[in-house]
Design a protein that fits this description.
It holds the Pfam family Glyco_hydro_4. InterPro entries: Glyco_hydro_4, Glyco_hydro_4_C. This protein is globular. By secondary structure, the chain is an alpha/beta fold. It binds 6-O-phosphono-alpha-D-glucopyranose and manganese (II) ion.
Length: 447
């Protein structure tokens, strides 16, 4: 199998070492000759890069070249696959995205609701610039984008790069949920096949089968109803916040029994309860800063000091493996099936043509070949149209510099709805994002 060259943008991320371990574990699916880390935050990158270099020397002997750089040309020019995982404003701004809505009695979440909107407006310009930079140096690398809030970022990218067939937006949540399905069913995760539809962080599994055609869907619902549903991927299994999130699946299936929900639907279906999920001084960002981030950087220090990864507990996880299997399917034209985001164009026939839907597709060297879904029924259509209108209005607000469209977007978001609350939360979010958001023009009478 031909070896590929891979670049990770956001090399200083807390996920990078896990992705590298996943690359090592998956080296028979996606053999690599080169790995390059790229980050604009040179100090984070330096630490992860030095640890990565030791780790790869020990565990990836067939790799010919590893480097970390903040030089775009070195990172983007001569490479086949680019994983993108950036966070504009870092975890510091994530914390504000979560805290400010909570202050107004709303859901405080990095990708859902008012916080997700704030993060979206921050990420759009950076992502457009990044893809532009990559494409000016490399016209045919596969760009696999994990950057959040994927629904909003993906829509903006689709508007600016509508013909780029080698730019894919991906989320690991469906596969992280399937990892738990595979563990309760005691079935190999790669032998499971899902039917799924929705928008990013807003969708449902309609059926889960194995590749031999055995349908597990009803059994799975029963198992979730009769047991606690738990995260089982290593990255999240022991995390109380993720445990609480997975637990909520049972309630959702009790209330709405037709399909198996994406865990993110909890924020839209139980906004009152979820607005009280986390205390202001310990929202998810703070938990990640004190948890995963500390652990990763402490591990790096130990690896660098002892010049070895001995006694360090890092391993591959589904977050990394999913991206890698997708890359392998694209590069080696395997035409395997994955859940990804793509322009609707009639896949869900009664949803807008230009929505960015999350659905199963075959991936090969021509790009994405989605499966048709057809018509969806009223409940889902109503929810999805509403959520898509929210997403689209954010994009319009951004490109038209229009405050009122942002306000309209928030009114449509199920976690907000009330106009006075929306105005108040917008004011605070605007203040916190002064250095990041575009100019937003208001009509005279609303000033
Ligand atoms: C899942 C979602 C991602 C999100 C992440 C947050 O993986 O699919 O979109 O960024 O969770 O996890 P964290 O542990 O940082 O709260
Ligand atoms: Mn996601």
């Amino acid at each position: 199998m031909k070896k590929s060259k891979l670049t990770i943008v956001g090399g200083g991320s807390t996920y990078t070492l896990g992705i590298l371990m996943s690359l090592i574990e998956e080296s028979n699916h996606l053999p690599l000759s080169h790995i390059t880390l790229y980050d604009t935050d040179t100090s984070r990158q330096e630490k992860i890069g030095r640890a990565a270099s030791i780790l790869l020397k020990e565990h990836y002997p067939s790799l010919e070249n590893f480097k970390y750089t903040s030089n775009k040309k070195e990172a983007f020019k001569d490479t086949d696959i680019i994983f993108v995982q950036i966070r504009t404003g870092g975890l510091t701004m994530r914390e504000k995205d979560e805290q400010i809505p909570i202050k107004h009695g709303l859901v405080g979440q990095e990708t859902c609701g008012a916080g997700g909107m704030a993060y979206g407006l921050r990420s759009i310009p950076d992502m457009i610039q990044l893809v532009d930079d990559i494409r000016s140096l490399n016209s045919d690398a596969w760009i696999l984008n994990y950057t959040n809030p994927a629904a909003i970022v993906g829509l903006a990218l689709d508007k600016i790069f509508p013909d780029d067939k080698r730019l894919l937006n991906i989320c690991d949540m469906p596969i992280a949920i399937m990892k738990s399905y595979s563990d309760i069913l005691e079935e190999d995760i790669w032998n499971l096949e899902a039917d799924y539809f929705g928008l990013n962080h807003f969708g449902w599994f309609t059926s889960i089968r194995n590749k031999q055609g055995y349908d597990y869907t009803s059994q799975l619902k029963q198992l979730i109803l009769n047991n606690d549903f738990k995260p089982t991927d290593k990255l999240i299994a022991n995390d109380p916040s993720w445990q609480a999130t997975f637990k909520q699946a049972k309630q959702m299936i009790q209330d709405f029994n037709e399909y198996l929900p994406n865990t993110y639907l909890q924020y839209y279906l139980y906004p009152n309860e979820l607005s009280k999920k986390e205390p202001m001084d310990n929202t998810r960002a703070r938990q990640v800063i004190n948890g995963r981030e500390k652990e990763v950087f402490t591990d790096c220090d130990v690896i660098i000091n002892q010049n070895s990864t001995q006694n360090i507990d890092i391993s591959g996880d589904i977050h990394g493996i999913y991206m890698i299997r997708i890359a392998a399917s694209l590069v080696h034209h395997l035409k395997e099936r994955f859940i990804i985001m793509t322009r609707n164009e009639g896949i869900i026939s009664n949803l807008p043509y230009d929505a960015l839907v999350e659905v199963p597709a075959l991936l090969g060297n021509e790009g994405v070949e989605p499966f048709k879904i057809g018509e969806i029924s009223t409940f889902y259509k109503g929810l999805l149209e509403n959520q898509y209108a929210y997403e689209k209005l954010i994009i319009e607000a951004y490109f038209d510099n229009d405050y009122e469209k942002l306000l309209q977007a928030l009114i449509l978001n199920r976690t907000v709805i009330d106009t006075n609350k929306a105005k108040e939360v917008l004011k605070d979010l605007f203040e916190a994002n002064k250095d990041h958001w575009p100019v937003l023009n208001k009509r005279e009478e609303t000033l």
